């Protein structure tokens, strides 16, 4: 009998071990799958944190593997958008990258309404995740022509003051046991986070007391309202924090301790991590599984098979990448019971930026040359992509505490909640105080991007709706040329009409859908798409061409706008903002005076009477029409704030035009004839158009409409904006063929850099710039010499901040800031 009992216990133990070993294999397998199906991250460097109307936003977008931070092997296409305060996308660019980065720019119209705009960047593949994971950065824009006040800058920043202040109001205090829970009889660290209603960095001093009002320990908040205490909970006791506000005691209860449970205690020494796992359960830590990963990449695992109540491990960090690292302890049922974040900062990963300037103190209008290179800790050349901005410190400010590519990739993109001045943690190498505060930050922030439930149980069932894009796709569908316009499968042929024509054939599917691509081209290409009911060999049959072709415009299929994770610039320094706006006003005045002087010279030469600007504009628009003057016209130049509206919203603003349920009529006389750039189209062919695509809209009524045949219900003529970001434009449609202009990837404009030696206009015009120089793409290889950059200083004697951001080919983010003084 005893022998059978022993055999039974052995059998049960074997089954238990076998089952949990299977769980271990499941965890490791899912982590490996996650690493292969990695998410993507995007970061965007702009030349400045804020702007005025009439300026240009210069930017470089970086696209990386979200796990390794190396070049992504999935997407090649990056979307960058400028979004106004009512969540309308007013500007959008499609960029292509074959390495780590792509550059672009936005021209801010002079008539743009001031406000807090948002710059957003993402890939199509990133749309499979929550939009909160997109790169989102607040861009304040002032309109100096409308006397925009500084209230805009200060209203939104009073809530984020950095200056420490004594406590005068009731604060919010939260407690974070180190690995999730307090457990009776197990010593645990507790992170404390304090904030007031303005989210200020406030000083709080207090005591930790037990339920008998005995003082157990004291605490005092450090930077960012963080503090740490250690507590050994006892059974049948509770604990609270006691603080005094206005001579009154306020009590904040600590989380109640569990009678039985688990605990992870971690001490981060920089070069190594000491971890202690503990449990007061009957079987202790038996069959528990400890796993550590960094952004989903496994770095350590331990399956405990003994009935021990504690164990310790020592983990060296000299072979690990930098960043947030997650330690999770699973109990013997496969449930995560403890979780602890730490930040690994490995000195061996440090990359040094070598910037050599030929002139220590250049003069105004002086040519400056630089040499820029990267080296690792051992002095070897390092390859990567960089971008550089040089801005006036008096107007823009200079702080190493702000967000940058390093803080975004290694902190902001992997943690919950806003992080004030994240650059603070990277200002000094191997600083024990900053490491200590950063560890408190890890204790008081939860894991955001990575959740075990998604990884272990939902990952295998998840199907991605949005695929990575390698280039531009031209998609659409084919319909029968009948009244019912039924979608049909048809033979299609695409032809790019360039210096070297390219042609490709495809059969549209049973739903009439066709897809060509991916293609990589810039600017525009004249394009033909043809379709046949049968094939292209049967053209003697006239009915073989009875096919209509419709194009999709996926470019405007933008994801939902959210604002839960927006990086915000520091606009609390009203002196800097005042200097910035005053300098922008001076630049605007110089530009106006210079343009005025050139017009005076022109009038000396030209003796004929000049047309007014309104006359020129009217003649320019009329030159695009065959009928001359319309009955009514809406010129989008006069209504720039309507650019985000749909075509139906725009038409509803025209006198006499009624829009209801996507149907249009003029004076309720039936559906009018619709023309797009002179070509008659159907109503469903213009539904994708927005105000950003339109130059002007004409309405023709009565005798004016008689210019077109079969237009007794009137005519609506829409003319697209030259250079608008519409994926295809100037569509000319005939049975079985459409002729259009395909729009390629955006080619960034070249940053205007005055040449004070060879330039002509520069001699006559004063030169003051808040952005002295912008270098969007600096490519370095481990075998090449340093990159060389040159530019001219302006007329301003000032100090300038040189900000360099980028990433190495091995996935190490680069951030460097230094100064240049111009005498």
TrEMBL record:
<comment type="similarity">
    <text>Belongs to the TonB-dependent receptor family.</text>
</comment>
<keyword id="KW-0998">Cell outer membrane</keyword>
<dbReference type="GO" id="GO:0009279">
    <property type="term" value="C:cell outer membrane"/>
</dbReference>
<dbReference type="InterPro" id="IPR039426">
    <property type="entry name" value="TonB-dep_rcpt-like"/>
</dbReference>
<keyword id="KW-1134">Transmembrane beta strand</keyword>
<dbReference type="InterPro" id="IPR037066">
    <property type="entry name" value="Plug_dom_sf"/>
</dbReference>
<dbReference type="InterPro" id="IPR012910">
    <property type="entry name" value="Plug_dom"/>
</dbReference>
<keyword id="KW-0472">Membrane</keyword>
<feature type="domain" description="TonB-dependent receptor plug">
    <location>
        <begin position="629"/>
        <end position="715"/>
    </location>
</feature>
<protein>
    <recommendedName>
        <fullName>TonB-dependent receptor plug domain-containing protein</fullName>
    </recommendedName>
</protein>
<keyword id="KW-0812">Transmembrane</keyword>
<keyword id="KW-0813">Transport</keyword>
<dbReference type="Pfam" id="PF07715">
    <property type="entry name" value="Plug"/>
</dbReference>
């Amino acid at each position: 009998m005893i022998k059978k009992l022993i055999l039974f216990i052995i059998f049960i133990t074997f089954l238990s071990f076998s089952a949990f070993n299977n769980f271990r294999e499941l965890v490791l397998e899912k982590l490996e799958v996650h690493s292969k199906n990695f998410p993507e991250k995007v970061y965007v460097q702009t030349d400045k944190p804020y702007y005025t109307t009439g300026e240009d936003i210069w930017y470089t977008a970086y696209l990386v593997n979200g796990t390794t931070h190396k070049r992504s092997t999935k997407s090649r296409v990056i979307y960058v958008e400028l979004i106004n305060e009512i969540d309308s996308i007013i500007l959008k660019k499609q960029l292509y990258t074959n390495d780590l980065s792509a550059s672009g720019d936005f021209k801010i119209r002079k008539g743009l309404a001031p406000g807090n705009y948002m710059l957003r960047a993402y890939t199509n593949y990133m749309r499979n995740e929550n939009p909160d994971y997109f790169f989102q950065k607040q861009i304040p824009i002032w309109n100096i022509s409308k006397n925009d006040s500084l209230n805009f800058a200060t209203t939104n920043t009073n809530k984020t003051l950095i200056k420490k202040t004594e406590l005068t109001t009731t604060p919010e205090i939260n407690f974070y046991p180190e690995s999730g829970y307090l457990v009776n009889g197990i010593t645990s660290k507790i992170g404390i986070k304090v904030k007031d209603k303005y989210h200020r960095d406030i000083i709080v001093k207090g005591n930790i007391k037990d339920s008998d009002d005995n003082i157990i320990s004291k605490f005092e908040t450090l930077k960012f309202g963080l503090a740490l205490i250690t507590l050994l909970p006892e059974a049948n006791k509770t604990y609270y924090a006691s603080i005094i506000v206005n001579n009154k005691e306020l009590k904040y209860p600590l989380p109640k301790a569990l009678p039985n449970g688990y605990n992870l205690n971690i001490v981060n020494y920089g070069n190594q991590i000491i971890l202690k796992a503990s449990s007061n359960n009957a079987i202790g830590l038996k069959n528990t599984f400890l796993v550590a990963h960094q952004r989903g990449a496994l770095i350590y695992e331990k399956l405990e098979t003994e009935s021990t109540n504690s164990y310790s491990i020592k983990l060296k960090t000299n072979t690990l990448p930098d960043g947030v690292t997650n330690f999770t302890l699973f109990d013997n049922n496969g449930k995560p019971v403890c979780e602890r974040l730490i930040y690994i900062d490995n000195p061996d990963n440090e990359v040094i930026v070598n910037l050599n300037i030929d002139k220590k103190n250049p003069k105004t209008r002086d040519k400056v040359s630089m040499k820029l290179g990267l080296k690792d800790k051992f002095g070897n050349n390092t390859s990567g992509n960089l971008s550089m901005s040089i801005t006036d410190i008096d107007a823009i400010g200079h702080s190493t505490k702000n967000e940058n590519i390093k803080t975004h990739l290694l902190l902001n993109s992997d943690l919950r909640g806003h992080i004030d001045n994240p650059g603070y943690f990277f200002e000094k190498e191997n600083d024990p105080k900053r490491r200590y505060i950063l560890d408190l930050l890890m204790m008081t922030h939860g894991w955001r991007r990575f959740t075990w439930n998604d990884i272990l149980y939902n990952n295998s069932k998840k199907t991605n709706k949005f695929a990575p894009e390698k280039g531009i796709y031209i998609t659409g569908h084919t319909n029968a040329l009948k009244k019912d316009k039924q979608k049909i499968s048809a033979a299609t042929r695409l032809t790019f009409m360039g210096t070297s024509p390219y042609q490709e054939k495809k059969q549209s599917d049973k739903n009439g859908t066709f897809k060509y691509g991916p293609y990589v081209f810039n600017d525009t290409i004249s394009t033909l798409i043809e379709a046949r009911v049968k094939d292209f060999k049967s053209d003697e049959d006239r009915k073989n061409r009875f096919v209509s072709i419709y194009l999709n415009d996926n470019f405007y299929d933008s994801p939902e706008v959210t604002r839960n994770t927006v990086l915000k610039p520091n606009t609390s320094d009203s002196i800097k903002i005042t200097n910035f706006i005053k300098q922008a006003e001076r630049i605007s005045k110089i530009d106006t005076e210079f343009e005025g002087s050139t017009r005076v010279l022109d009038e000396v030469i030209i003796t004929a009477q000049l047309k007014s600007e309104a006359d020129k504009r009217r003649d320019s628009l009329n030159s695009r029409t065959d009928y001359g003057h319309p009955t009514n016209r809406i010129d989008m130049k006069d209504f720039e704030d309507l650019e985000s509206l749909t075509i139906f919203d725009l038409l509803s603003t025209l006198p006499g035009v009624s829009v209801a349920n996507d149907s249009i009529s003029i004076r309720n006389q039936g559906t009018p004839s619709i023309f797009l750039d002179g070509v008659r189209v159907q109503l469903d062919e213009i539904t994708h158009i927005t105000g950003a695509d339109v130059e002007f809209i004409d309405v023709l009524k009565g005798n004016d409409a008689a210019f077109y045949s079969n237009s007794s219900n009137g005519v609506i003529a829409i003319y697209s904006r030259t250079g608008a970001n519409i994926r295809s434009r100037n569509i000319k449609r005939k049975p079985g063929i459409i002729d259009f202009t395909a729009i390629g990837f955006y080619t960034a404009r070249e940053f205007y850099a005055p040449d004070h030696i060879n330039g002509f206009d520069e001699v006559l015009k004063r030169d003051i710039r808040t952005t002295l120089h912008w270098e969007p793409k600096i490519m370095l290889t481990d075998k090449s010499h340093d990159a060389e950059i040159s530019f001219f200083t302006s007329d301003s004697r000032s100090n300038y901040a040189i900000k360099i951001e980028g990433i190495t080919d091995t996935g190490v983010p680069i951030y460097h800031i230094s100064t240049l003084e111009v005498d």
